[in-house]
Design brief:
This protein is of the alpha/beta class. The protein has two domains: about 170 residues, Leucine Dehydrogenase, chain A, domain 1 (Rossmann fold, 3-Layer(aba) Sandwich); about 180 residues, Rossmann fold, CATH 3.40.50. The strands form two sheets. It has a seven-stranded mixed beta sheet. A five-stranded mixed beta sheet has the order 1-2-4-3-5, sandwiched between helices. Helix 12 links the parallel strand 10 and strand 11. Helix 5 crosses helix 6. Bound molecules: NADPH dihydro-nicotinamide-adenine-dinucleotide phosphate (NDP). The site of NADPH dihydro-nicotinamide-adenine-dinucleotide phosphate (NDP) has 24 residues, from helix 8.
């Protein structure tokens, strides 16, 4: 059940339930109402102490969590977040979103999420390794994970290095080599395109928005694109936008934003990739790396990019939750934004979604859309999608080629987009027939109905 002390979870729950109620689903099929009370309670939450030793030999204590939310469609699947802000409300919101996102991929994966309030920033590699071994010990020895039980992956603060340490820990505690984590290294069970998957998938999804809305007349060519974040998702989204002929006008981190009228370059992004592994801030990166001295950008301390980007066509929030406020959404609309798609989970506040959806509903003609909002649940599903393909490759003991994985990612992002359109149209109660279908309603309806049907079949709901 939703408790008022869990604001992020409450927000995610209300977003899902309000969109389902604001459709004809319950009118047409009243049985689905019963599912909400069941699906909104995690099947299991594992919470534990993580005691690890710092380089001075002192004991350090963090909280560890794994929320095993729903296994109707397959083993629990969802990332591990390592960030000081991590608490149960945030992990329940992320796990809840993950259930329906994973359903949308069309692959057999349930929903989960986990992590710790451990802050990797400022820690040595040895400290990170000792933390990862201590964290994994609780989950592995407790028997909570397994290739058919629960398969975690990366998220904020958990990249290739951390996945490597976590995998090594699992293997040593269980004496078993199995595909129990995704985002693994390429030589030991990882999939090509997994690092790129969320960012690329986000851009493939947005490309569908542009093509659908313009009846195939436009794509990314010439579009001005504002991106936030400068981590895994933002980096690969930016590289794909540049490849497709768009101009990336912003990136950001937790300290500030960089803006470029003429476009952030691939060389800028390669420097950021190299520096972010060492936890450097954008402020330091632009002073230290030659790519920025030969092609300078503007730095704004302590700011998110949205009100500073000037005229834009596309916005791709890709840092963290609630990173576009209602006011910032209005500023983006005033700046001409037509397409918003979230790389981050719950990147927009409810007020921002209301601004974007309000613009969509007010559209006068389908051929000149106002703003079309794509929720993270659908638009950032590329990461988990390729994670599921990594699981398939591990089961087969095979490695697919870059082209195979990228083609599958693209094909499935298009299918997922089309599913959202289909469900939004089928269960629409909207009166303005000129406006584009609601992608947030469509994603919630398609994901929810698939999970609910499996829960009925299993006798979880009756
Ligand atoms: P990374 O840790 O690689 O990067 C996160 C970026 O966001 C960094 O630039 C970081 O800044 C910034 N950031 C983190 N917290 C805050 C904050 N509170 N305020 C402002 N900026 C912040 O994470 P990912 O790129 O993997 O994840 C980004 C988002 O995408 C998250 O919402 C995640 O849940 C979502 N996502 C990720 C997937 C994946 O495959 N990785 C899959 C689907 C969704 P700094 O460098 O200063 O720390």
């Amino acid at each position: 059940m939703v408790k008022p002390s869990e604001p992020e979870f409450e927000q995610a729950y209300n977003e899902l339930v309000s969109t389902l109620k604001d459709s004809t689903l319950f009118q047409k099929h009243p049985k689905y109402q019963k599912v909400i009370d069941v699906v909104s309670v995690p099947e299991r939450i594992v919470q534990f102490r993580v005691a690890w030793e710092n380089d001075k030999g002192e004991i350090q204590i963090n909280n560890g969590f794994r929320v095993q939310f729903n296994s109707a469609l397959g083993p629990y699947k969802g990332g591990l977040r390592l960030h000081p802000s991590v608490n149960l409300s945030i992990l329940k919101f992320l796990g809840f979103e993950q259930i329906f996102k994973n359903a949308l991929t069309g692959l057999n994966i349930g929903g989960g999420k986990g992590g710790s309030d451990f802050d990797p920033k400022g820690k040595s590699d040895n400290e990170i390794r000792r933390f990862c071994y201590a964290f994994m010990k609780e989950l592995a020895v407790g028997g909570f994970l397994g290739e058919n039980r629960d398969v975690p992956a990366g998220d904020i603060g958990t990249g290739a290095r951390e996945v490597g340490f976590l995998f090594g820990a699992y293997k040593s505690y269980t004496k078993s080599w199995e595909g129990v984590l995704t985002g693994k290294g390429l030589t030991w069970g990882g999939s090509l395109i997994r690092p790129e998957a969320t960012g690329y998938g986000l851009v493939y999804y947005t490309e569908q928005q542009i093509k659908y809305a313009t009846k195939g007349k436009e794509d990314f060519t010439g579009k001005r694109v504002a991106i936030s974040g400068s981590g895994n998702v933002a980096q690969y989204a930016a590289l794909k936008v540049i490849e497709l002929g768009g101009t990336v006008v912003s990136l950001s981190d937790s300290k500030g934003a960089i803006i470029s009228e003429t476009g952030i370059t691939k060389e800028h992004i390669f420097s950021i990739q190299e520096a972010k592994i060492k936890f450097k801030s954008l402020k330091d990166i632009i002073n230290e790396y030659s790519a920025f001295s030969s092609s300078p950008v503007k730095y704004i301390d302590g700011a998110r990019p949205w009100i500073h980007v000037g005229q834009v066509d596309v916005a791709l929030p890709s840092a963290t939750q609630n990173e576009i406020s209602g006011e910032e959404a209005k500023a983006l609309v005033a700046a001409g934004v037509k397409y918003v798609a979230e790389g981050s989970n719950m990147g927009s506040t409810q007020e921002a979604i209301d601004v974007f959806e309000g613009e969509r509903v007010a559209t006068k003609s389908a051929s000149s859309p106002a703003v079309w909002y794509g929720p993270g649940k659908a638009s950032n599903a590329g990461g988990v999608l390729v994670s599921a393909l990594e699981m398939a490759q591990n089961s087969q003991r095979l490695t697919w080629t870059t082209e195979q994985v990228d083609d599958e990612l693209k094909k499935r992002m298009i299918e997922l987009f089309n599913q959202s359109i289909k469900f939004a149209t089928e269960y629409s109660n909207e009166t303005n027939k000129e406006s584009l279908p609601s992608l947030v309603k469509g994603a919630n309806l398609a994901g929810f109905v698939k999970v609910a049907d499996a829960m009925f079949d299993h006798g979880d709901v009756y």
